[in-house]
Amino acid sequence: MYRVLIKEAASMWTVVYLAKNKKIADKVNELMSREGVLVKLQPVSKNTGDEDSYFEILVLESEVEEAHNILYELGY
């Protein structure tokens, strides 16, 4: 029972933006968090440094529409 719940919780994250580097990812994270959206950052490649790696910006599936609206309003 618990294993099923953990699997479902893990699949509830959706990529809403791909940042070119950690600095941009952190900025988007800050802006989304300020609006009350829970954000998770995930590097695309683990073999490069933070400044050379792309980062996925993930939000909960239930907040995807709100996250897209925020990104649009902020010009991302």
Which structural category do the helix and sheet elements fall into?
alpha+beta
- Count helical runs: 3
Question: What's the main sheet like?
Answer: 3 strands, antiparallel
Q: List the strand order in the largest sheet.
A: 1-3-2
Determine the CATH topology. Answer: Alpha-Beta Plaits
Descriptive notes:
- The chain is an alpha+beta fold and 76 residues long.
- The protein has three helices and three strands; from the N terminus they run αβαββα.
- The protein has a three-stranded antiparallel β-sheet with strand order 1-3-2, covered by helices on one side.
- It is globular.
Which key terms come to mind for this protein?
42% helix, 3-stranded antiparallel β-sheet, alpha+beta, Alpha-Beta Plaits, single chain, globular, 76 residues
What layout of secondary structure does this protein have?
Layout: H1 2-10, E1 13-19, H2 22-34, E2 39-43, E3 55-60, H3 64-73
Antiparallel strand pairs: 1-3, 2-3
Task: State the gist of this model.
This protein is an alpha+beta fold. The chain has helices spanning 2-10, 22-34, 64-73; strands at 13-19, 39-43, 55-60.
